[in-house]
Here is the input.
Amino acid sequence: MTDSAVEEPPVTGMGETIPRRLPRAARTKRRSERARRLGRDLRSSVGDAAGCGVMVGTGETYLPAFVLAAGLGEVIAGLITSLPQLAGGITQLVCSRGVRFLGSHRRWVVTCAALQGLSFLPLVIASWRGAVSSAVVIGAAVLYWSAGLASSPPWNTWMGTVVPGRVRSRYFAGRARIQQAAVLIGFLAAGAAIEFGATSENALAGFGLLFALAVGCRFVSVTCLARTSEPEPMPSNARHIPFPELLKRFCRGAEAHRLLYLSLVQGATYFATPYFAPFMLRVLKLSYGEYVFLISTAYFAKVLSMTLWGSVAARFGVRKLLWIGGIGIIPSAGAWLISNNFWFLFCVQLGSGTAWAAYELAVFLITFNSIRAEERTSVLTLFNLTTTAAMVVGSLLGAGVLIAFGTTRPVYYVLFAGSALLRTGTLYFLKRVPARLIEPLNFVRPRPVAGSAGLLPVRPLVAALMSSSRTAENSSEPTGELLRRTA
Here is the structure.
C-alpha cells in the first residue's frame, strides 16, 4: 500500500479519478510504523544469525573431531562434513511443497530450524554414554543438513521481502560479521567444554556438553526467527518451477557457466577441506588448543574483513567482489605445502579467512540480486542441490586418494595441491559469467552514507523506509527477466 492510498471517496471529474493523499501526519505515522517494524525484524534476524552461529561453532565444526575422538577413522571424519549434505540437497526438492502446505515461508523455516537443533540430541546421549556408532553420527548429520538446507531457499525468499534492496550489501555484511563472530565464540567455548567435560572414564563427555549447548543456541535462533515479520507469507506471484524445467533453463549458455562455477568451486574446495582436521590432529599432531587457535584464526579474519567486503560490494559491485574472492581462495590450500610451521599456518589462516569472507558474501548477494523473487525458492533448490552434489563428489575423490595411497603426509599434500589447481580452473567459468547474472538490474555505485559503516546499518535502512514507497519497492526488486536470458 502506498502513501497515496485512498482514505476518502475519490474525487471524480472529467472522467478521471484523482486519489486523495493521506494527511501528512498519517503518512509520517505510517512510515514510522514501517521503520519500527523493520528495525525489529533487523534485530531479530541478527539474533537468529548469532544463535545459529554459536550452534555451528559448538556443533557442526566439531563433528570431525568428535568422529576422530570416537575412533571411527579419518575417512569418516572427512566424509561427515560433506556426504550428509547430499541428502540435504535432495531433501530441498520438497521445500516448495512444504511451504505451500504450511502456507508460509516463515513457518517452514522455523520448523526446519527446530528439527536441525533436535538433530544433536542423539549425539548428546551417545557422548554421555561414552560410545557411538557410525550409523548414529551419520544419521544425526543427515538430519542436521537436511533440515538446514531445506530451510535455505525459503529463508532467502522470505528475507528478500524483508530487507530493502538498496541496503542489502551493507546489512548482510554486518549480519554475516556478527554470525562469524558467534561461530568463533562458539568454537572457542566448545574447545573449553571438551577439556572441562572430559573424564578419565569417558573422553566423549565433553562433546556431550558442547552438543547440548548447540541445541540450546539453535532454539534461541528459532525464537528470533518466529519474531521476524513476514510481509508476504505466500506471494501472489510465487511460482513453483518443475525440476526438469529448471534443468533445461540452467544447463545452457551463461546461466550454465554461473551454475558450473559455483558448483565447481565447492567441489574443488571439498577435495581437500574435509581432511584438514585429520591432517592437523593426526599428521601434524597439534594439540586441541593449537587446532582451535588455527581454526578460530580463519573465523577471526572473516569477522574483521566482512565490513570491508560489504563496502566493496556496495561501492564497486558484487562481480568485482566475486573476482576478489574467487582468486583469493586459490592459494589457501596450496600454501600448506610450503611449511608446517605453526606461525606460518597462522598467517595462511588469516589470508584464507579474509578471502573466503569475500567469496561467501558475494555468493550470498547473488541469490538476492539475480534471481527473481517469485522463483527464488525453486531456483535456489537447484543451486543448492548442484553445489552439495559437487561437494560430495569432491570429498569422495579426496577420500579415494587417501584410501588408495594411505593417510601419510605426502598424500595429504597431493590433496592440497590438487584443490588449489582445481580452484584455479574454475576461473575459466567465472570469466564467462556476464555481469547481468551477478549484479542487480538497477545497480549504481552509491555515495557513502553517513553512519553506514557500522556493524548494523540501521540509519540507511531507516532512510530507505522513509523514502517514497514506490521507490523502495523498485529498488528492492531482484533482476527481473535477466535469468530467463541466455548468452
About this structure: Confidence is low (pLDDT under 50) at residues 1-19, 441-487. Residues 108 and 153 are 11 Å apart (CA to CA).
